[in-house]
Every structure is written in C-alpha cells, then in structure tokens.
C-alpha cells in the first residue's frame, strides 16, 4: 500500500496495512537545506538525515493555506506599516496601525538559530485598543480560491502523501492580538466585547472556508486555535462559547464537501472532549500524554475513536531528551492504544518538532525508532 493510499484509507476509516507515521511539520518537502537565508535552520548538515528519512519513509502530510485570486484590497492595509530588519542575531518585524491619533504596535522577533517567531509586543494592550481595532473597516470576502497551490504540491508528492489545508479559527486570530494574561482577563470579564471581536473574524473565515472546501473537496483540514480556550486558561463553559459556537460552522462547511476537519488542540483536553466531539469534527490532534496533557490515548480512543481519526500521542520534548529505549516504550504504547478496539483510525505523530539549528543526534535516533517500530508491525 503506498503512503497516499494509507493516509486516505485511514481518514475514511478503511483498512490499512499499518498505521501511518507522520513527523508533523518535518516532511522533507518544505525544508530547503540549500537556502542560505540566515534564519533557515535546515541548512545545518545535522538535519540532512532526518529530512531524507521524512521524504523517503513517512506518510507525508504537507500543510498549506489557500490564497485567493481577485480578492478586494484589505482596507486596513492603507493604515498599516510593516518594517523588518536584522538586529544582532535576530530578525525583528514591527507592524503599526494608525487609527486616528492612536497607533497600535506589534513587534516580533525571530532568532537566527531558533525556528520560531516570538511576539514580544502584542498589538492590543487593553480595552481602549480593542475598541479602536473594532472601529476599523471589516475586509469584505471576495475572490476565488487559487487551487493551483494545492494541485502543485499534490503533483509533487505523488503517492508519498497528501496536502492538509491549514486554517486558524476566530479564537486564534482574536487571542493572538493580546498577550496571554490580557487575553484571559478580557475573555473572562468582557464576553460581549470579546464576542464582537470573534464575530469580526468569523465573518471573513467562514465564507473563505466554504469557498475553499467547495473548490477543493475531500481534503484533510487542520483548524488551529481552540487551545486558547482550553483549561487552565479558560473554563469549559467558555470553550463552548468561544470555540464550539464558531468552529462548528467551519467544520460543517468542510465536511459538507467531503472534507475531514481536524481540530488541533494542545494541552489538557479531557474536560473539553465532549465539546470538541459536539462540533462533529472527524479528526483530532495531538492528544498529548500526561503530564503535558491530562488524558491517555486509550481513553480518547474508547470514547471518541469511532467519530474521529486520532493523531499523536508522542510529545515533541521526549524526542529530544528521552533515551531511545525509553522513547521506544512510549511509541509502542501509543501504537497499542491508538489501534486497540474499534476506531476510525490512528496516525502516529509527535506534537511538534525540534526548532534549534543543530538537530541532536538523540532526536534523529528517536525519529528513526518511530519508523522502525511502525514498519515492524
């Protein structure tokens, strides 16, 4: 069974020769070792063996957002200025939005040896900033999805994998405007105001989702952002308010056109699993094991496995720090619990990937062990 077929059968709940294994972001396609950009960590030779392994052995799931052709200009762009520059060992980006006499500022930093972007100053610092932001004109949905982006990746992948359409939800876009403390206080104490912000983003995301799902039916999707409303940040009742209320319509739009909606939610999910399932989604990741998470994979498989394909249950930090013999035990447990009894399907996958410039030798050995144990099933 080729890798594309294995993934598609898993998503449909059909028989497979073995569970798929995916390295999440690492796929041997998106990484470019020959790119000499100073922020490209994959140019370091320590990554070569892992990228080759991902390209040749994993069931590849390549994430892509879908651009639009012929869309109207965003009216906020004329009020926005973005400056990017290198400072020491970091790449800094500063975005400002002028609203009357008020200037909103966001600052991000990407260190040259770390493959992540840190928001060191968030755009909105309080209710007055939020009210100003809500006064901005709402971009109108227009244009048609540019499916050529997805078609090209699928042609390049051939029978080695699939494309997964990637989208934030309204909560992700809203919460990211604030630092975490300000977000949680606002979400707890000003629900009506926070709903205004969520509704603003939903008014754009939902028609976009419908258009993409119709133009690209039958694809796997990832909806990210629900973890902002997971415990301990917010109580389950607000997960229902801020996630279920908005994401359910996105899930329905995706699955109306035979797509598979996968909810991405890190952390402690045990007390919101019923809420997640209530959206009708067909997949869930990354189902982190304790102590990072708070629920065992066997529990999720038994109660929700017939509705959802389960992706996970390996913790990214374990790849870098656990001796391979101990990590093997976690792989074996995940494979056993993820496939035991009745269920729609399971994909062995870590919760994220290393992001330092030099890949530790131990991490490479642990990735190799994932492939070895899956292929030996």
Plain-language structure description:
The model has no long low-confidence stretch (mean pLDDT 97). The chain starts with a helix and ends with a helix. 37% of the residues are buried. It folds into 2 domains: 3-73 and 124-375, TIM Barrel; 74-123, no CATH class. It has 13 helices and 13 strands. The chain is α/β, with parallel strands linked by helices.
Summarize the structure in short.
The protein folds into two domains: 3-73 and 124-375, TIM Barrel (Alpha-Beta Barrel); 74-123, no CATH class.
Keyphrases for this structure?
13 helices, alpha/beta, 2 domains, four-stranded antiparallel beta sheet, 377 residues, seven-stranded parallel beta sheet, TIM Barrel
- Based on helices, strands and strand pairing, what is the structural class? alpha/beta
Helix share, percent: 40-55%
Low-confidence stretches: none
- What oligomerization state is this entry in? single chain
Distance between the termini: 14 Å
Please indicate the percent range of residues in DSSP E strands (runs of 2 or more): 15-25%
Our Rg estimate from Cα atoms comes to 21 Å
Widest sheet: strand order?
1-8-9-10-11-12-13
CATH fold naming of the largest domain: TIM Barrel
Task: Count the beta strands.
Answer: 13
Helix count equals 13
The dominant shape is globular
Q: What is the CATH architecture descriptor of the largest domain? A: Alpha-Beta Barrel
CATH uppermost class of the largest domain:
Alpha Beta
User: Helix and strand string, N-terminal first?
Assistant: HHEEEEEEHEHEHHHEHEHEHEHHEH
**Overall mean confidence score, pLDDT:** 97
